[in-house]
Design goal:
The chain has 490 residues and is an alpha+beta fold. Helices cover 53% and strands 15% of the residues. It has two domains: 231 residues, Beta-Lactamase, CATH 3.30.450; 168 residues, Histidine kinase-like ATPase, C-terminal domain (Heat Shock Protein 90). The strands form two sheets. It has a five-stranded antiparallel β-sheet with strand order 2-1-5-4-3, sandwiched between helices.
């Protein structure tokens, strides 16, 4: 009754509604045009940026795969025909698989001798060039004339900056040049011609927006007509307030989640940086000890150390790197060799006195090689051994590393055990996901530890299970001490 009485105070005639509707329709039409133009401009700019980013990422992934593959080749060793064939096949797959997509139009590796530029698109030619730089480079079936011409003008820039260079042709054709630097030495560039087309997304969004705009305009007009009779000011204000509160809460949760992710990634970088600093100290020490009698031994160790530092830097760049970085046909790693190198050249070389711990290696020489990056295995085994040293107590610790191959079920076992004080029982309990608490992020029992500790076992477990497909178990021994058991399915 009160609402009717209030409405009766105002006299709305047909001309009032006509003027109101005309103004609203005109306003909505202008607003829709502005939104449409703004949205189209935004989508076109976003599409151009994404096209370039997509093309560069595709070229970067291909280059990384080739560099990782070439780093497994030792130019000082003669490769067997079967090894050479596998490497050539792997290179051909990498060079050809991107051409199967509809966007990639051309791919090759560009190298130069003097002022002349050569294009390589065959794995056997590339392998011969990398292992014997004096070999004559045969002409490719596809001359890649456009790529050679562009590279000749960009070669000095690529060599000086070693950064990805993209050249745009037309509206959506990108010529991407990614520096190719196996073993850290600039050799040339991986060229990829890519024509990513995302215009269908823009057209679809604009079309949907137009349809939505028409529906939205119609609903507004109907809603305004009904508002004069059935709307309630109190309910409208309440709904508006609730919507604002929910929006603020959602934004706060998203912001907090983003900060947590950044913080966790920062702590992982700190952990990786600490390991890299330790390795660099060994490199400096080796350089001081360098003499003509031990040059081969020093070169071998420094090469391993340098590759590990490269791996550490790569971990700092990628929060979630692609799977081919961890495992694939390009890798053929001897676990025993990795274990011996870590023990002899990491833990038995530390500047801290090693009188409180000793090692016993029981390595099964029948252990088959695995298709895993050797520095990933390094990052799995090294933290577990370090855990035995850090948490073993003040007594002399005897650390035993054993490998065993079980041909019956084609399984390799890696056992790292010690005779220290063991692991606290509550850390061996499993959470709701079945993961032992010792392997959870930021979990540590180290005395005086801060928030930057507790990542060694977590990273080792994550790499072994999520990246390599292995399993890992921690348990206390019946007498004293503990052990980590890693199961590798060959």
């Amino acid at each position: 009754m009160k609402l009717n009485e209030r409405l009766k105070q105002y006299r709305f005639e047909l001309r009032h509604f006509t003027v109101l509707f005309v103004i609203l329709i005109a306003f909505q039409g202008v607003l829709s045009m502005i939104h449409n133009t703004t949205l189209r401009t935004f989508l076109v700019k976003t599409q151009a940026w994404y096209q370039k980013d997509s093309a560069e990422k595709l070229g970067n992934v291909t280059t990384t795969s080739l560099e990782l593959l070439t780093e497994t080749i030792n130019p000082r060793e003669t490769m067997s025909p079967s090894q050479r064939r596998r490497v050539v096949d792997a290179m051909n797959i990498i060079l050809s698989q991107e051409l199967l997509g509809k966007n990639a139009k051309d791919i090759c590796i560009l190298v130069s001798r003097g002022d002349k530029v050569y294009a390589i698109d065959d794995g056997s030619v590339l392998l011969s060039y990398l292992t014997n730089n004096s070999v004559v480079i045969p002409a490719a079936d596809n001359p890649h004339t456009e790529a050679v011409k562009l590279y000749a003008g960009l070669r000095d820039e690529l060599r000086a900056k070693e950064e990805i260079v993209s050249v745009l042709e037309g509206e959506q054709t990108f010529h991407v040049f990614v520096p190719f630097s196996p073993h850290g030495e600039f050799v040339g560039a991986v060229y990829m011609k890519d024509t990513p087309d995302f215009s269908f997304i823009t057209n679809s969004i604009i079309s949907n927006y137009n349809e939505t705009s028409v529906i939205y305009t119609s609903l507004i007009l109907l809603g305004l007509l009904a508002m004069y009779y059935v709307s309630s000011y109190t309910v409208k204000e309440r709904d508006k307030t609730q919507k604002l509160l929910l929006g603020e809460r959602e934004a706060l949760v998203k912001e907090r989640t983003a900060h947590e992710k950044e913080f966790m990634f920062t702590r992982r970088i700190y952990h990786t940086h600490h390991k890299a600093e330790k390795v660099m100290a060994f490199v400096k020490e080796d350089l001081k000890l360098l003499n003509p009698g031990n040059i081969d031994e020093i070169k071998y160790r420094i090469s391993k150390y340098s590759n590990f530092v490269s791996r550490a830097i790569y971990d700092m760049k990628w929060f979630d790197p692609p799977v081919q970085v961890f495992r694939g046909p390009a890798f053929n790693t001897d676990i025993n060799e990795v274990v011996e190198f870590i023990v002899n050249n990491m833990f038995l070389r530390t500047s801290r006195p090693a009188s409180n711990y000793s090692f016993r290696l029981e390595l099964d020489r029948k252990l088959p090689k695995v298709r895993i990056n050797e520095f990933v295995i390094w990052e799995i085994i090294e933290p577990l051994i370090q855990n035995s040293i850090d948490h073993g107590g003040d007594v002399d610790i005897k650390i035993r590393v054993k490998t065993e191959y079980r041909p019956a079920d084609k399984t390799s076992i890696i056992v790292i055990s010690d005779d220290g004080k063991g692991i606290e029982p509550d850390l061996l309990q499993r959470d709701e996901d079945g993961v032992q608490k010792l392997f959870l992020e930021n979990t540590t029992t180290k005395a005086g530890s801060d928030r930057n500790f507790g990542y060694g076992c977590y990273i080792a477990y994550d790499l072994a299970t999520a990246r390599c497909g292995w399993s890992m178990l921690a348990e206390n021994l019946p007498g004293k001490g503990c052990r980590f058991v890693i199961t590798v399915k060959n």
